[in-house]
Write a structure and sequence with these properties.
Elements (H helix, E strand, L loop, with lengths): L1 H20 E4 L3 E7 L2 E6 L2 E4 L5 E3 L3 E2 L3 E11 L5 E12 L2 H6 L4 H18 L3 H6 L1 H16 L4 E12 L2 H74 L3 H15 L13 H31 L4 H14 L2 H4 L8
Antiparallel strand pairs: 1-4, 2-3, 2-5, 2-6, 7-8, 8-9
């Protein structure tokens, strides 16, 4: 029984010794080994052996990039406004030994140096500059923090301002200013649109008027050319037909009703050729009347053939009354 107890004790001791001797370090971790209270070495990822009861392994340090968000910090700007600023910090541990022995609480130290640097940077800027110069602020913060944390074995990769919150009254004033600016821009854009619309409308009307004038010009030219061609054709037809004065007089009389069709026509201008035309018409009508009298005389002579003496006298009188156009087979215009 005693031997069994001893065996169990020995096994337990062996397990304890093995557990304190064999250690496994995960990937992206680093371990600090102290021997008899002093720094001995830094363990890399993998399995390693320690001296039991002499070596002590401190808590493993994460070598991956870490993200830390700090609570809002009140900062006074150059124009004496208190704003709350949230910051986000990205850092990486490069040296596990320095991060373990150079600073007691790395996160608290980073937070405090971030706050003081942020106050120095924001204190030299106005609120408007702080709102529009985040890249400049981030670059300054990163430069200062990287220099300060380099001896701690920590590298600052990136610093971002998560939010900048001015007081409520300032926010209301900024919103009113932005609303007024948007209204001004909208009015300007509306005026520009109306101006452009009016310009385009005027340009369209101008082009339409020009095209209309060009169309009327071409129509007038074509109409004048057609009328000229028609007049030329009529003139050639008249000259080729060689009309006599009677035909011309008749055409003049046919044109008179067309001249009188207008409601405002009160005065008629009669060409000088109308006198000759009316004279020719009068001679023609007199010749027709004389011919009709001769025909009536011949009929009367034939009807009174039983009175030879009287008929001869009547026939002589009728023959003397005939116009030269019927008594002589000559030119009717000779009389």
């Amino acid at each position: 029984m005693a031997a069994a107890i001893v065996a169990v004790v020995v096994v337990v001791l062996l397990v304890i010794v093995a557990a304190r001797t064999v250690r496994i370090v995960p990937q992206a971790r680093a371990g600090i080994v102290e021997r008899l209270g002093r720094y001995h070495r830094t363990l890399s990822p993998g399995m390693t052996l320690l001296m039991p009861f002499m070596d002590r392994l401190k808590p493993l340090i994460d070598l991956r990039e870490q993200v830390v968000t700090f609570p809002p910090q009140p900062v006074i700007t150059e124009d004496n406004l208190v704003v709350g600023i949230d910051t986000v910090l990205y850092f990486t541990v490069n040296d596990a030994k320095s991060a373990t022995y150079e600073v007691a609480n790395p996160l608290q130290a980073i937070e405090q140096i971030t706050v003081t640097t942020l106050r120095n940077v924001i204190g030299s800027l106005t609120l408007e500059q702080a709102l529009t110069s985040r890249d400049h602020i981030n670059a300054q913060l990163r430069s200062v923090l990287d220099d300060a944390t380099g001896k701690w074995g920590i590298r600052i990769n990136r610093v971002e301002l998560k939010s900048i919150d001015p007081p409520g009254s300032i926010q209301e004033a900024m919103e009113k200013q932005m609303r007024a600016e948007r209204d001004r821009r909208a009015a300007i854009l509306n005026a520009e649109g109306v101006k452009q619309s009016q310009i385009l409308t005027a340009e369209g009307q101008k082009q339409a008027a020009v095209l209309t004038a060009e169309g009327q010009k071409q129509a007038a030219i074509l109409r004048a050319e057609g009328e000229a061609k028609a007049i030329h054709t009529v003139f050639e037809a008249i000259h080729l037909g060689d009309p006599d004065p009677k035909l011309l007089s008749y055409q003049y009389l046919q044109m008179l009703p067309q001249l009188a069709q207008g409601s405002a026509n009160k005065v008629f201008v009669i060409p000088s050729e109308f006198a000759e035309a009316f004279g020719g018409l009068g001679r023609a009508f007199s010749q027709v009347a004389g011919a009709q009298g001769a025909v009536d005389g011949v009929a009367a002579a034939l009807a009174g053939s039983d009175h030879a003496g009287n008929g001869a006298v009547a026939a002589g009188a009728d023959a003397s009354a005939l116009p030269p156009a019927l008594g002589e087979r000559g030119d009717p215009d000779a009389g």
